[in-house]
Design a protein that fits this description.
single chain; 664 residues; alpha+beta; Pdz3 Domain; 7-stranded antiparallel beta sheet; 18 helices; disordered N terminus
């Protein structure tokens, strides 16, 4: 009996300790101890609510969200905002269930890497080793006669087989039927004229390979009759690759894909609400579709037959947070190992060869400051990127606005759950990645070690010199080094809407307000030279570097306009761009200097419309009585004119340049 009692005591202790450990991701901890300002985290809910108020459900938006933030393995923030139904009758819950669409892809990628860890799946083996029906796929070929401009289409043999690694990094040549969704009223010929080889997307849509009544095996068999859009390994283009990967998992494991995920991912990670459909007893937590009816293929209220590893899962913010924490921990959570650390490192390291071309979308490539690993987009360049975060942060998003990111440097995870119609203004407003800016902006700055200096007296003339608007670029935190919007960074209005092709840079959708569009650049144009340098054979990153340059400088282009045969010369003047920037506006008020946020995002404790007094400690240094003990030092140029300021000089400093001197 003593042994039984002792064993019972040990089991109870283990259960209690395991439960306490798991609760670190279940119950929000103290924000300050985790390096956050609670006051600044409190900005998150009003930010979402303002957008729900601005866009009614009729605009394709469910007026609610769930946001989860974890740092150092502990939950820092979990909040349900608004409602989970379009009628605004059911309050959103922290465990409300969302269709996460393409956030299914990282889960499928993890499933495949589990089998790689076990030696059952070879990353560099041909996919046909596991799915022989795909062994004879050919590659779509396009030939254009330079003399006549006539384009012919045909088929070619693949230079090498597509591999499992190609499926994970979207270099297989398998694509999505995008054009029939985006341009249902347009014909193949017109689509071909605009997008060249993208006419094949129409074929993928017309073939009808994706049907709810099919199984993954049926789906793969349907794909076998289609050509690949690209030679395997040569082009990164988003597509059916991860759904095919799900079928590979089935064949290698001997289990249906849903059973494999349940036993090897969801159960070990205690992801209790994640799967391919929502059972009846949980339907009261399912968030509405932003449309009156969910497309039948994505009706998640009934058991699925087609287990889409590319977009079929439903989940909750707490569940997906646990999945992300496992990755941040190097493959382990709560003492349970799902992946080896080596597998996680391979997944979150650039997997694209330097000569690979990036085709379609704006989430991956030099224009976005990102690359792609084995299942994730990875941040590579803070200058090019439009979101904050450390180099090496990895992330992905879902079709209806769900989104997550993991920042290994900060040991930070963010999960956003929303449902908004793709392409709608409401979705654009919510997927402007505001959550990244708000979370990084809430990180506290370590207090200075030195004792704050005593207040000093500064002349009215000097105070007047400091009045003006100061621009930090896109940076909201000292851990982020996005480019400074100081007039040195020019903008053409095409950078986010390009794709690299063999002959040059294809323009998909120039910004109508950009300098390139004003100079005559239109959708479908092909830029073949920049400043007398041919673009043929160059990587997108190299071309993007040539597009960028100081504001108010001229770039020369050779451009083939859509529908024309020959190239013409075009000169475009780069414009200064200060959109979505972080700014402070300083003015003298009742004999003292005050500051308030003036850009798209607040910074530290500074708020829009709220004047914060600055206390002088010397002729050019000031402090703020806030949680960060913020210090401000002004910078003058060689002529003695104020040219900028530095927040918290030292390891955590943030620099800004004057963009509008004097009262504003």
């Amino acid at each position: 009996m003593k042994h039984i009692a002792s064993l019972w005591t040990i089991l109870v202790a283990l259960c209690l300790s395991g439960s306490a450990f798991a609760d670190e991701l279940g119950t929000p901890g103290d924000a300050k101890s985790l390096g956050f300002s609670a006051q600044r985290l409190a900005r998150i809910a009003p930010w979402y609510q303002a957008r729900f108020d601005a866009f009614p459900p009729s605009e394709g938006l469910v007026p609610g969200a769930v946001v989860a933030i974890a740092k150092d393995g502990k939950l820092a923030f979990l909040q349900a905002i608004g409602f989970q139904d379009r009628a605004k009758t059911i309050p959103m819950k922290t465990n409300s269930i969302f269709w996460i669409a393409s956030m299914s892809k990282p889960v499928t990628s993890v499933a495949a890497m589990i089998l790689v860890d076990e030696g059952k799946l070879d990353l560099d083996a041909p996919v046909a080793k596991y799915l022989p029906e795909l062994g004879d796929m050919q590659v779509a070929l396009q030939r254009t006669d330079s003399a006549t401009g006539k384009t012919e289409y045909g088929l070619d043999l693949p230079k090498r087989p597509m591999t499992v690694r190609d499926l994970l990094r979207h270099t297989s040549g398998l694509i999505y039927p995008e054009l029939d969704f985006a341009f249902p009223e347009r014909g193949l010929a017109e689509a071909s004229a605009d997008f060249g080889i993208r006419a094949i997307h129409m074929l993928y849509g017309w073939k009808g390979v994706w049907r709810r009544e099919k199984t993954l095996a049926d789906f793969v068999s349907s794909l076998a009759g289609l050509p690949l859009a690209h030679q395997p390994g040569e082009v990164h283009e988003y597509g059916w690759s991860v759904d095919v990967l799900g079928r590979v998992v089935e064949v290698v494991s001997g289990q249906s894909f849903d059973q494999f995920l349940q036993s090897r991912v969801f159960e070990p990670l205690h992801m209790v609400d994640t799967g391919f459909y929502v059972p009846e007893e949980k339907l009261d937590r399912l968030v509405d579709s932003p449309m009156p009816e969910r497309p039948p293929i994505w009706d998640v209220t009934k058991p699925a037959k087609l287990f889409s590893g590319g977009g079929g899962l439903v989940s909750t913010a707490p569940d997906y947070l646990r999945f992300c924490q496992m990755l941040l921990n190097g493959g382990e959570l709560d003492g349970v190992r799902v992946l080896t650390a080596q597998a996680v490192k391979a997944m979150t390291t650039n997997a694209l060869p330097p000569d690979v071309r990036i085709f379609g979308g704006d989430e991956v490539g030099g224009r976005a400051g990102t690359t792609f690993g084995l299942g994730f987009g990875i941040r590579t360049s803070p200058v090019s990127s439009w979101i904050p975060g450390a180099i090496g942060s990895f992330s992905w998003a879902g079709y209806w606005g769900t989104y997550f990111w993991v920042d290994p440097a900060e040991k930070l995870i963010g999960v956003q759950m929303i449902q908004a119609v793709p392409g709608s203004k409401a979705r654009q407003a919510l997927v402007s990645l505001g959550i990244n800016h708000l979370v990084y902006g809430a990180l506290t700055v370590p207090a200075p070690f030195a004792t704050p200096a005593a207040p000093a007296i500064v002349s009215p003339e000097t105070l007047a010199d400091y009045a003006g608007t100061y621009d930090f670029g896109g940076s909201v935190s000292p851990g982020d080094r996005q480019g400074l919007a100081d007039g040195k960074n020019g903008w053409l209005g095409i950078e986010a809407f390009v794709a690299m092709e063999q002959e040059g840079l294809r323009i998909n959708k120039p910004d109508p307000g950009g300098s390139a569009a004003k100079a005559g650049v239109t959708a479908g144009d092909l830029i073949t030279e920049l400043d007398d340098t041919p673009l043929k054979g160059l990587a997108l990153a190299d071309v993007m570097a040539r597009l960028r340059g100081p504001a108010n400088t001229t770039i020369k282009m050779k451009i083939v306009h859509r529908g024309h045969d020959g190239a013409s010369d075009l000169s475009v003047v780069r414009a200064a761009r200060r959109v979505n920037t972080v700014q402070l506006r300083l003015r003298v008020e009742q004999g003292r200097l005050v500051a308030e946020a003036a850009g798209a995002w607040p910074i530290l404790e500074f708020e829009n419309g709220k004047a914060t007094p600055l206390v002088a400690t010397s002729g050019n240094e000031f402090t703020v009585d806030d949680d960060d003990h913020t210090r401000i030092a002004f910078v003058r140029d060689a002529a003695g004119k104020v040219s900028g300021l530095i927040l918290n000089p030292g390891p955590w400093e943030q620099k800004a340049a004057v963009v509008a001197p004097g009262p504003n």
